[in-house]
Specification:
With 304 residues, the chain is mainly alpha-helical. It has 2 domains: 1-68; 80-291, no CATH class. The longest helix has 67 residues, at 2-68. It contains 9 helices and no strands. Helix content is 87%, strand content 0%.
Length: 304
């Protein structure tokens, strides 16, 4: 009896353990199906669109960065001139033309002043030993200098005043003629220096006008673009400042050249004044010889 009951208990225990094991296997299989059937596809479905979206987002970010990045400007003087406003361009062209005029006047006046100074010095050396106006005119020959004009004026006045005993009146009239010739020569030799003075005085202000106009346009552009990025603002300001730079380039040489020519002109006019004195002395000698009486010659010889 006890043995039968024991055998029945063992069989029931074995059946229960087999049932539990089978249930565990069924549960594990269903879990694996769930994991393989739902979780993995979901992960694949979620992973599949993530990679393209990330690449698209990266490309869009790079495109936005490139679009927001300001275009680089080549800040060379020529490119700044081409991209400047029409008013600023006109100012730059005018200043460049003024600079060209300055250097043209410099070359022309340097050649002229050098030539006339050398010619006048040579003429003064030629008549250094002349005793009369006739000798001086013969020594000068065809030399076309201010000294030739002064000697000719003195001879003309002496000829027109023939028979007049007042030497003082002749000398006064000759001095008046000399003064007119000297003034005319001074006006002629200063021709072109007024242009240099004007360019030197006004070029900085003209360039400043172009700068103010360009900076005003730059601020208007800043207000329209609503950005204060230096890369956006800098090209317009640089274009405006270029006008001031060109104005200084035109003004500084003009002032230096004007001062140089003022010194050269002063030296030349001193030579002209010296020539006027030489012509006056020659005229005075001729007048003294004309009014010397024969009795005076005899007395002077007796005194000797």
């Amino acid at each position: 009896m006890f043995g039968t009951v024991l055998r029945i208990g063992v069989v029931l225990t074995s059946l229960s353990m087999a049932t539990v094991a089978l249930a565990q296997q069924n549960t594990a299989g269903s879990d694996q199906k769930v994991m393989s059937g739902t979780t993995a596809p979901a992960a694949q479905q979620s992973a599949a669109p993530v990679a393209p979206n990330a690449a698209a987002d990266t490309g869009m970010a790079a495109a936005d960065a490139r679009a927001s990045r300001p275009a680089l400007h080549e800040l060379s003087p020529w490119s700044m001139f081409l991209s400047a406003d029409i008013i600023v361009k006109a100012v730059m062209i005018g200043l460049a033309f003024a600079s060209l005029v300055t250097w043209t006047v410099f070359i022309a006046k340097m050649i002229e002043l050098t030539f006339v100074q050398r010619a006048l010095r040579a003429a003064l050396r030629k008549i250094a030993d002349s005793r009369s106006l006739a000798e001086a005119q013969f020594a000068l020959g065809s030399n076309d200098t201010i000294l030739s004009s002064l000697v000719s004026a003195a001879m003309r006045e002496a000829r027109l005043s023939a028979g007049i005993s007042s030497d003082a009146g002749v000398k006064e009239r000759a001095a008046s003629s000399f003064a007119e010739i000297v003034r005319a020569e001074a006006r002629r030799i200063r021709l072109g220096m007024g242009v240099l003075a004007t360019i030197g005085a006004t070029s900085p202000f003209v360039g400043l006008f172009g700068t103010v106009w360009g900076i005003m346009n730059s601020f208007i552009g800043i207000s329209k673009s609503q950005t204060t990025n230096l890369a956006v603002v800098a090209p317009g300001i640089a274009e405006a400042l270029l006008a001031t730079a060109i104005g200084l380039v035109a003004a500084i040489p003009a002032v230096i050249i004007y001062n140089h020519f003022a010194r050269m002109t002063k030296g030349y006019l001193e030579l002209v004044s010296r020539s006027s004195g030489v012509a006056g002395r020659l005229l005075s000698r001729d007048l003294d010889r004309t009014h010397v009486s024969p009795q005076g010659r005899v007395n002077s010889r007796a005194a000797e």
